[in-house]
Amino acid sequence: MLPARVLGDLYYAKCSDLELDPSENQMRRFLDFCRTSIHGRKVKLRDCGLGSQCCEIFSNILKKYDISNLDLRKNTIGNDGMKQLCKGIAASTSLTHIDLGSNDITSEGANYFFDKISNNKYLYSLNLANVDGLHRNRLGCHGCKGLNKLLKKNNILSMLDIADNSIGNEGIKHMLQGIDPSKTSIVYINLSNNNLTQGSINELSNLLNSSNIQEIRLSNNQLTDVSVQELGYFFYRGQCQLQKLDLANTELTSAGVGILSHALKLNPFLTHLNLELNDFSKGDKFHKISLLLKTNKILKSLNLSK
Predict the structure, then answer these.
(1) Secondary structure of the chain in HEC code, one letter for each residue
(2) How far apart are CA 115 and CA 255, in angstroms?
(3) pLDDT per residue over 123-161, tens digit each?
(4) pLDDT in tens, 175-233
(5) pTM attached to this predicted model
(6) What's the mean pLDDT when you consider all of the chain?
(7) Of 103-107, 130-134, 156-160, 236-240, which range is least confident?
(8) Region class of 74: left (phi > 0), else alpha (psi between -120 and 50), else beta
(9) What is the Cα–Cα distance from 213 to 210, expressed in whole angstroms?
């Protein structure tokens, strides 16, 4: 648990960010909240109105205290706060996971962050995903250029969540351009709700060819059956060793599922497949899925809800 003095400094910084007058009662409530939200080496302060002034305090905390998980989702850190926070992240030798989802961070702040952690030897999990419409991060296509430089230099980062950041197919292209499949450390990536369309699977080819990647989430994108046909190619050829694949609400039909089912018949890797919120009402419906279940002995979880 962080000292009361440090939490008091954080409260006053919060008041400064929100342009509020400090209150003894409000400060007491904030300290009580922190005591329930900070456990051991994990800090979880979501939706607290924390901004750039608070990031100066957090930067000092990361420099002085042994923090492993920092979760500041749904605050108002912004680009200025990100730059302050990077000072502490660069100095920390214990921080392994950081969640800055929904924090008004644009490509400018994200690229600054990516540059500062490019040689970081401790941070292996990063979340910049948005969870609702408030304080959305906007990584976009331009931010993926900085992400590309990070992935080329950093051999530690293995879990990346950038859902709902409007990166599009071009963003994936920038992110993975020149990436060596044999050298990337990424095992999990969430690309859900990112304006991905036909052709996105081709842009993901470098990652799909990696023997390290275990899980990809592509839900809530307009992939259609064409993309699934491209994806089936990697499974059929044995080039893809994914264990978990999320294709929920990606405009698949029974035709696309038939293609995927055929490709997965003898696949020895995929254990979890999510196909919920797709329309399989036409064509042969579940016949191909039935054949998949009869022939595939590896799949453990199949979601066909909604």
Answers:
(1) CCCHHHHHHHHHHHHHHHCCCCCHHHHHHHHHHHHHHEECCEEECCCCCCCHHHHHHHHHHHHHCCCCEEECCCCCCHHHHHHHHHHHHHHCCCCCEEECCCCCCEHHHHHHHHHHCCCCCCCCEEECCCCCCCCCCECHHHHHHHHHHHHHHCCCCCEEECCCCCCHHHHHHHHHCCCCCCCCCCCEEECCCCCCCCCHHHHCHHHHCCCCCCEEECCCCCCHHHHHHHHHHHHHCCCCCCCEEECCCCCCCHHHHHHHHHHCCCCCCCCEEECCCCCCCCCCCCHHHHHHHHHCCCCCEEECCC
(2) 43
(3) 999 999 999 888 999 999 999 999 999 999 999 999 999
(4) 999 999 888 899 999 999 999 999 999 999 989 998 899 999 999 999 999 999 999 98
(5) 0.95
(6) 94
(7) 236-240
(8) left
(9) 6
